[in-house]
Write a structure and sequence with these properties.
Two copies of one chain form a homodimer.
Chain A lengths: L1 H4 L11 H9 L5 H12 L6 H10 L8 H16 L9 H8 L5 H18 L26 H9 L3 H11 L11 H17 L18 H10 L4 H21 L2 H4 L1 H6 L5 E4 L15 E5 L4 E5 L7 E5 L7 E10 L2 E11 L11 E5 L11 E12 L8 E3 L5 E3 L4 H10 L3 H25 L19 H32 L7 H28 L11 H8 L9 H14 L9 H7 L3 H8 L2 H4 L4 H4 L2 H28 L4 H7 L1 H25 L4 H21 L1 H7 L4 H18 L3 H6 L5 H4 L12
Parallel strand pairs in A: 1-5, 2-5
Antiparallel strand pairs in A: 2-3, 3-8, 4-8, 5-6, 7-8, 9-10
């Protein structure tokens, strides 16, 4: 054996070592390969006979080298590779030359040529030393690019920097971090945190003009969005107490109920919002709890007539709430007036459940276990008629039902419409959740190394296009949605400020953005979890809780599949009226789309693959707008045709359900990009505008890519353009990846809140 | 007020009541509408003056009806609607006629005409009573269709009905159900369950020919798949003990280690599989733990040289394991021989950690908290050289390293290749998880009612096309994958039975199916969770645990993003060799694709939208095959061009990463469908074959729909055909939805295992 190992010191043979190693290590030499090598060596007259003899011995197929011989050979090759410049380590031939440094200059030139020729003959000319474990690896730096983090943060913070600063200060308390606790202990902690939050004065913003001097609800909404960077049980607990329970009193009650709000804002009066029932979640109009008016005592009698009417999923009901806003079918003198809200005490101040009330616990949930969701049954519980939240309807001293809105359906939708702020909050919380998950996954992707190029050590995960694809487009969308919610809050405030707010258009916008943002959050957290591998599966790294806690965002405050259909109906009929009407107006409204489409389907444009064109906002808005118009128009036409043919409206809706949802989604996609573009126009700093513009472009093109099949079918883009869009998305990911750290830092998540160790890990230990 | 209410009894006026109600309830009458009504009434000479007077009073815009008057009116209308046939409740005019039954026959005819005309004039002719809350709702039956559940189950069970029956019997123990427990308690339970499983003799199947008479590993694999219908912590715990720990001894050890297997199979010797390290999970070749051979004592010295080399995520390490299979870089006489496996005792029989070993706990995880994942550090732990699992390499009495496989890289891949069975198991477990989630969600969707048609009561969720879309295509894919894994197990057994198994092709198939199945599971569980709304968020309904427990399937036993790239490389180079070689063969292999493509791109075929064509397996296989061939060929060409231009292979791979992944996915998609089709050919019963054929068709068309943008770009389908594919998918969902209950029942999940209350709920309470 040692005879063969002589060669490692023979300067004439050393250039061939890498090739011999690779040839054997790859599973033994075939007879043909052996012949090739022998013939080649015979053509090298300059080889000394002794060297030729050793080489021959290495080429005996019946005597392959042993594992130890090959291992020794590898040691030699590795040692040589370690002394080479990185760029030279990429070739077996170069590695051979490195081994030949001791040989005479003439031999060196000849052996180099011979080795290269042999490599080609054996088909290993492209084989790399590192791929064979022959060269050590070096850390390759990922080219990070600085961005104006403070500038971006100021823009993201928008008009409420002060509010955000206060909430961030609150969030930065280290005690606001818990996971894996038993339910009781976690609930107790969250209860305490909510008290701290209210003590910090943040709860007061929920009732502008009553408990706070803030002008409108936008401060509370911004606070809620910011709070969603932290523990989501606390967020939901705050949302229930202040937004739902307090909000129902604020929006549905009258002067006589306002006095309660001080206690609500300070948590002296913990309450709950008892709307959903086991049998009816989304379909609120068909709730079955009854509030029957008894004129003799001037009381309302609250009853749960059957099991499907029990109140279910009610946050706060299982343990904390003392007062409940109960939604029930109001009956006055035997006449039903539809769903109304009544304040019903359910516990006394010491927490004992009151007579006639039965309480259950929903038990363990996927997430949000710091929130005490419960069930409620009412066995003829009597409350004074004054407990009716009577802004829109009341029962007068004669026992007569009175309402400023005579129509039951209009009254119902008006009441519900006042509560639309909750959906704005949940949607924007989804954006914050995506921010948190992305901040963790991006920071990890820039530190964690795995695999790498030949001749170089392992590279950071962010180097990989698939990894960029996972994180960068969602990052862009998160930015776009962030600005869209700023606009949505402004729209909300604007509509609420009207003397007689017509909330119907707003409701569709809110529903659409809630759907978009919460599904975006669900997908993004999942991507981030997987992008962090096993680390993303550990509770300490927060992604499991972000996933489990936010998953229900798609379900509560309006189930996303139901909401998107509301958007569809609203879009289709212009103003959310019943489908039988108003179609003419819609058809007129969208009537111009064909003309536009014809203009945009100019053969030059559908094939324009220039980067300038693909990156122009004009294209993005036109394309998203075109899709929305065509889908809405065709949905309207198909609906009208079915109704005209005598089809039942429900059956027609079922048949067109997917078409309608596509139309609604397209409509919202266009709206969101339009709002983002509007916001961009107000950005003065050119560098910041450029960064945001690139993010918006990636968001828009990723959206086009996602729906490109539709555009291809429609003829709006040609195949060559579809391919160009895909390439442009890839290029944008590459462009933005080096700025990713700054882009997530601009979210302004306090480090204590970010919490996940992998977001702070020393790269050396990863 | 009561004057106005007179009209409710006037037979001449009653036909108009629904129209009046709707006109007012929709927000008040405009002047124009009032004019329309008045003019219309003037054209009805047959109306008595008294009736005309009352109607006039209802049309005074300055005196709109009160809420109570409208409510009273609604009561009258509802009462009338309640007595009507359901099909007549769909029109306001019919409702009016129902109210007119007391009037004279002549009046009835005239008023019917007049009311209909008025409805058209007011634009409410399509408005439905139910939409206005005027008609009660009736339960609409969803047309369920029976399927041959037992026949399907027999086919799904395949060749191991007996094995499955034994595991089902085991699973049916009511005590095997836990959630929400503290970690310690849960681990303790799972430990006990694993003992029960081993006591039931199921563990013995893991070592065919040693602890059991079973012919090969397929019995154990089928048992594992079936076990995945139940608690997934138990599954993983069993997989670690029997598949990974036991499997490493069985496959990497020699005769001298076989005696251990009896104790492994019976859990007398709990062990763990210590491969992954904090710094290297996917990149196993670069593990840093060292096993240095000391010839003086004939011992191996195991060390953790730095923090990134600690063993991490090791199931069983935190508490239970006594013996560990440790993967480490073997050093003999100063020469490194790459990664080898060594048995290292880490605890004594009473559970005390042994000297030189340090143990940590990974802590709370997203799921699988019944598994005690831990970390291990070794401080120069000495074990006899006999502890080396020496099937492929050993150290002889002279201290010489010996291996039957001289090449270090081939040896490494051979060792890892023997462990490929674990990936088969995890992939098929993903299919079982999807089965469990679908069974729960489908049963709920067939019981839970929400919303509904005008004039009918609420309908079951499965009625909705969006709901079918969520559940039915994944159901079809689950069937297809189920058969594919049956074939994959057969392939595995076939390859292992070879005297010198060449596992490379198998490894790519296994990796591809593992990726496909585990991502399918992740997506399907998420869809099912959302499809069950709030109920899906409750732990008691199992979906949260199914989600959390199975989410890591995409990460462990090979991270999916890494595995799919292995498939890509394998597909590209034909046999998994390094990329620099063998491209010529690939190009030759796929060289015919252009010819095929030209034939298939016949203008008649690319536009063929007939259902018969779209449902033909010939089309599906041709289309999936075409995509695979074209993507593989173009990836190979692009790779060759880059290498030819001198680009570094790693850089070239990065540039083509997404293309390569698309190629690999397409290749696996085609393979899976081919395998399913092969399996179908063996089904004798025509009805069963038909059912399975329809499922396969939906799976294939849904796959085409998902990737239709590619086919449009490629010109393989024209837009008209893309639309037809979408419609066909919708039609197939409609066709299969009524059979959904039977299709999930055929999975044969014991009711105790299904467990979720919503899967058994009385529809009346939902």
């Amino acid at each position: 054996m040692n005879e063969r190992l002589e060669l490692v010191d023979d300067p004439q043979i050393r250039p061939f070592l890498p090739l011999l190693y690779v040839a054997w290590s790859d599973g033994g030499l075939s007879a043909a390969e052996r012949l090739v090598i022998r013939q080649h060596l015979e053509r090298q007259p300059w080889l000394r006979p002794a060297a030729r003899l050793v080489l021959d011995r290495w080429l005996e197929p019946e005597h392959p080298p042993s594992a130890t011989e090959l291992a020794r050979l590898r040691e030699v090759l590795r040692a040589a590779a370690g002394t080479m410049a990185v760029d030279k380590r990429r070739s077996l031939v170069e590695l051979g030359q490195e081994l030949a440094t001791a040989s005479e200059p003439d031999d060196r030139g000849r052996s180099r040529v011979a080795a290269r020729e042999l490599a080609v003959l054996l088909g290993v000319d492209q084989t790399e030393p590192a791929a064979e474990g022959l060269s050590p690896r070096e850390v390759m730096a990922f080219p990070e690019v600085a961005v104006d983090v403070e500038g971006l943060r100021a823009l993201l913070d928008g008009g409420h920097a002060e509010v955000r600063a206060r909430v961030r200060e609150f969030l930065a308390r280290p005690e606001l971090r818990a996971y894996g606790l038993p339910t009781e202990r976690y609930r107790e902690l969250v209860r305490g945190w909510l008290r701290d939050l209210c003590d910090a004065g943040i709860g007061r913003w929920a009732f502008p003009g009553v408990t706070s001097e803030v002008a409108d609800l936008s401060s509370f909404m911004v606070a809620f969005e910011t709070l969603a960077l932290g523990d989501l049980s606390l967020l939901v607990k705050a949302g229930v107490q202040l937004g739902l329970f307090g909000g129902s009193i604020f929006f549905l009650g009258s002067e006589r109920h306002r006095a309660l709000l001080e206690d609500v804002a300070t948590l002296r009066l913990p309450g709950c919002f008892a709307m959903s029932e086991s049998g009816h979640g989304s379909n609120v109009a068909d709730l079955e709890t009854v509030a029957r008016y008894d004129h003799d005592t001037r009381e309302l009698v609250i009853s749960t007539p059957r099991e499907s009417a029990r109140k279910d999923w009610i946050g706060g009901a299982a343990h904390d709430a003392q007062l409940a806003t109960v939604f029930a079918q109001l009956e006055v003198a035997g006449v039903g007036h539809g769903v109304h809200a009544v304040l019903v005490p359910i516990r006394d101040a010491t927490g004992n459940v009151l007579p006639g009330v039965r309480v259950g616990d929903c038990g363990l949930k996927m997430g949000l276990n710091g929130v005490d969701n419960g069930r409620l049954w009412f066995d003829g519980v009597r409350v004074p008629v004054e407990n009716l939240l009577n802004r829109f309807a009341d029962i007068d001293e004669n026992g007569q039902y009175q309402s400023s809105i005579a129509s039951p359906s209009r009254r119902f939708f008006t009441m519900l419409g006042t509560l639309v702020g909750g959906r704005v909050c949940v949607g924007s919380a989804g954006v914050s959740v995506a921010k948190g998950a992305l901040a963790i996954a991006v920071r990890y992707a820039l530190a964690r190394r795995q695999f790498g190029p030949a001749g170089g050590r392992e590279v950071v995960l962010m180097t990989y296009p698939t990894h960029q694809r996972r994180l960068i487009p969602p990052l862009a969308t998160t930015y776009v949605l962030s600005f869209a919610f700023e606009r949505l809050r402004a729209r909300y405030v604007e509509v609420q400020a009207q003397p007689e707010p017509d909330t119907r258009a707003l409701e569709a916008e809110v529903a659409g953005l809630k759907v978009l943002a919460t599904w975006h959050a669900t997908r993004t957290v999942q991507q981030c979890r997987e992008a962090c591998g096993g680390q993303g599966y550990l509770a300490v790294n927060r992604l499991p809780d972000l996933k489990a806690d936010s998953d229900v965002f798609a379900t509560f405050e309006g189930d996303n599949t139901v909401l998107i259909q509301l958007v569809a109906k609203s879009v289709l009929s212009g103003f959310g009226r019943s489908l039988g009407r108003g179609l003419g107006a819609v058809l007129k409204l969208v009537g111009d789309s064909l003309k536009t489409a014809v203009r945009e389907k100019n053969p030059l444009i559908v094939r324009d693959t220039s980067s300038a064109h693909l990156r122009s906002r004009e294209l993005h808005l036109a394309a998203l707008g075109h899709r929305a118009r065509v889908l809405v128009q065709s949905a309207a036409q198909r609906m009208q045709r079915r109704l005209h043919d005598g089809m039942d409206a429900h059956d027609a809706l079922l048949e067109l359900q997917e078409h309608m949802i596509a139309a609604a989604t397209a409509h919202i996609d266009h709206l969101v990009l339009q709002w983002f573009s509007d916001a961009l126009a107000d950005v003065a700093d050119p560098a910041l505008r450029q960064t945001l513009d690139t993010l918006g472009t990636l968001h828009a093109l990723a959206k086009l890519e996602e729906t490109v099949a539709w555009y291809l079918e429609d003829g709006y883009v040609e195949p060559v353009k579809a391919r160009a869009i895909r390439k442009e998305v890839e290029a944008l990911c590459r462009e933005l990846a080096p700025a990713a750290r700054g882009l997530v830092d601009a979210f302004g998540i306090p480090e204590v809140t970010l919490a996940a160790p992998i977001a702070f890990a020393d790269p050396a230990t990863l």
